Amino acid sequence: MEVFSERRLAKDHADRIKQGYSAYAETDTLASLIKKELQIYNLRVYEDLTEFGCWFIPLTDEH
User: Fold this and answer.
1) Could you tell me if 23 and 33 are in contact, meaning their C-beta atoms sit under 8 angstroms apart?
2) Which Pfam families match (predicted)?
3) How many CB atoms sit inside 10 A of residue 18's CB?
4) CA 14 to CA 36: how far, in whole Å?
5) Is 27 helix (H, G, I), strand (E, B) or coil?
6) Phi then psi for 41, rounded to 5 degrees?
């Protein structure tokens, strides 16, 4: 069984967003780490916050 750190998972999600895919965070901690990664990469996203978690949807120049 492979154990992922939340920091590594946040970096992986940010990489997916850079490629144009959406990412989902189930916890506030993971969402916070993803936001930090997005700031580092200067990526713009739409955050869809629900009672179950947060979706990060990449914004393009078209949106």
Assistant:
1) no
2) YtzJ (PF26326)
3) 13
4) 9
5) coil
6) -85, -5
- Cα dihedral 62/16/25/60 (nearest 10): -10
- Give residue-wise pLDDT tens across range 7-46: 999 999 999 999 999 999 999 999 999 999 999 999 999 9
Number of residues in the chain: 63
| 3-state class (DSSP) for residue 22 | coil
Give the chain's end-to-end CA distance (angstroms, integer): 40
Q: Compute the Cα dihedral for 26, 27, 32, 33 and give only its sign.
A: negative
pTM of the model: 0.86
